[in-house]
Write a structure and sequence with these properties.
Layout: H1 18-21, H2 34-37, H3 42-49, E1 54-58, H4 65-75, E2 79-84, H5 90-107, E3 111-116, H6 123-135, E4 139-144, H7 148-151, H8 154-157, E5 161-164, H9 170-183, H10 188-193, H11 196-206, H12 210-223, H13 232-239, H14 251-265, H15 269-281, H16 286-301, H17 307-321, H18 327-340, H19 346-360, H20 419-429
Parallel strand pairs: 1-4, 1-5, 2-3, 3-4
Length: about 425
């Protein structure tokens, strides 16, 4: 029975995504990461020389990790076996090693195992790779969006070079878009519709992710079949809520929390509000944010504005009792209060110094007799506790520190905000 050329019973082969079609296969067409693989860099020399067989590429989505691994294999003429950590286990590793041995026997080619999302491999799976990597039976390239120091076991990490990729720059995204329009098989008319304003909007929306940029170009080409024009509103419509660069279960969680807290410490309310908005939009636990506010109120504002801690702890109560989205306003209020408050880390420095003396400097001394719970009231004034309220001004000079630490100052008030009054009072008592 003869099959017709367009037999409807045979499913059509799906169109290859533009991001895959445009994936470069040589370094000359690789866009971005010049500091890592640009001319004259050590990594580029290793790739070109075919000596890179054990590495982890660490970076955000769409920065070129998988592409770079494939280029490494192609230039080095290695047999490449690709696996995703999400779908693979110890059995797959053993199978890859067997295939590597067979490939070596048949063709003399070395094999590289490329594991995407290697951070999702558990300890057992990572341990299973070690002996084969150590023996040289197989090379290993991994790609991860997570910090390898946290996601990869030390024994494996010590055998791999770790290379960090960055988000693509705006001009690099533009290069990728222009190349796709020229080489992606699009009608020239479509390229004309994507003017500079549209390209800039795509670059904005992709936020340094080359894959998002190419997917958006492809989506625009599909929509273009039913529209006579493309504008920025259409770009916004296609990307609504899809490019918030925040994953509360990944390194992004810690990076954003760090940026938030450093913006508070740096007295920049606009930056602090921005990072707060990203965390909330990304689904972060508002109680986690509230805890960051409490920490900053004590560590960085401290006694320069004691009310900051009251505001932060009150917000924790609001978060617990009301929840999102209403508590977002209270979080914003506390964020602005703490960011704009005068700053003092004197309380943080005081406890830090005291803890060092007690735990790391061998200065753990017993309580002086006159400060102990049961004090002999019949002792002379020199050897007994002096009750401050029995003296003028409700103050009396006596030794509260252990004798060995007499004169030590842990708390050193700063001339900041309300702490200025404490500083003046302490100076008067000296």
């Amino acid at each position: 029975m003869r099959m017709e050329l367009f037999d409807q019973s045979v499913p059509a082969k799906p169109l290859q995504p533009l991001a895959d079609r445009m994936r470069p296969d040589r370094l000359e067409k690789f866009v971005g990461q010049d500091e890592l693989v640009g001319e004259g860099t050590a990594l580029r020399e290793r790739i070109v020389g075919g000596t890179l067989m054990a590495a982890i590429f660490w970076g955000p989505p769409g920065s070129g990790k998988s592409t770079l691994a494939r280029i490494v294999a192609r230039i080095g003429d290695f047999h490449l076996i690709e696996r995703s950590a999400v779908q693979s286990g110890v059995k797959d590793i053993r199978s890859a090693v067997d295939k590597a041995g067979e490939k070596w026997r048949l063709s003399g080619k070395k094999t590289i195992l490329f594991i995407d999302e290697i951070h999702r491999f558990g300890k057992v799976q990572q341990d299973a790779i070690l002996p084969h990597l150590e023996s040289g039976a197989i090379g290993l390239l991994g790609a991860t969006t997570e910090n390898p120091a946290l996601a990869v076991i030390p024994a494996l990490r010590s055998r791999l070079g770790i290379y960090r990729l960055k988000r693509l720059k705006r001009e690099e995204i533009r290069t990728i878009i222009d190349r796709a329009l020229n080489e992606g098989g699009f009608d020239p008319l479509f390229g004309e519709l994507l003017n500079d304003t549209i390209k800039e909007r795509i670059a904005d929306k992709s936020a340094g992710d080359g894959r998002i940029a190419l997917n958006l170009v492809q989506a625009l080409s599909n929509v273009c079949n039913t529209r006579s024009m493309i504008d920025v509103d259409l770009v916004d419509e296609l990307t609504r809520d899809s490019t918030i660069l925040y994953d509360k279960s990944s390194q992004e969680h810690y990076d954003h929390a760090s940026a938030f807290q450093k913006s508070l410490r740096g007295s920049d309310p606009d930056a602090a509000i921005y990072w707060l908005a990203k965390m909330l939009a990304g689904g972060e636990d508002p109680m986690f944010i509230a805890r960051r506010l409490v920490v900053t109120a004590s560590e960085d504002v401290g006694l320069a504005d004691p009310a900051a801690l009251l505001v932060a702890t009150s917000v924790m109560n609001v978060v617990e009792k009301i929840g999102m989205p209403e508590c977002g306003i209270s979080l914003a209020q506390a964020t602005i209060h703490i960011a704009t408050a005068p700053k003092s880390n004197s309380a943080y420095q005081a406890i830090k110094s005291a803890l060092y003396d007690v735990t790391g400097n061998g200065k753990s001394y017993p309580v002086p007799n006159h400060l102990r719970e049961k004090v002999n009231k019949n002792r002379s004034e020199e050897g007994r506790y002096l009750y401050p309220h029995d003296y003028p001004g409700h103050e009396v000079t006596q030794q509260y520190l252990p004798t060995e630490l007499e004169g030590v100052e842990y708390y050193k008030p700063l001339n900041q905000g309300r702490e200025s009054a404490i500083l003046q009072s302490k100076n008067r008592r000296k």
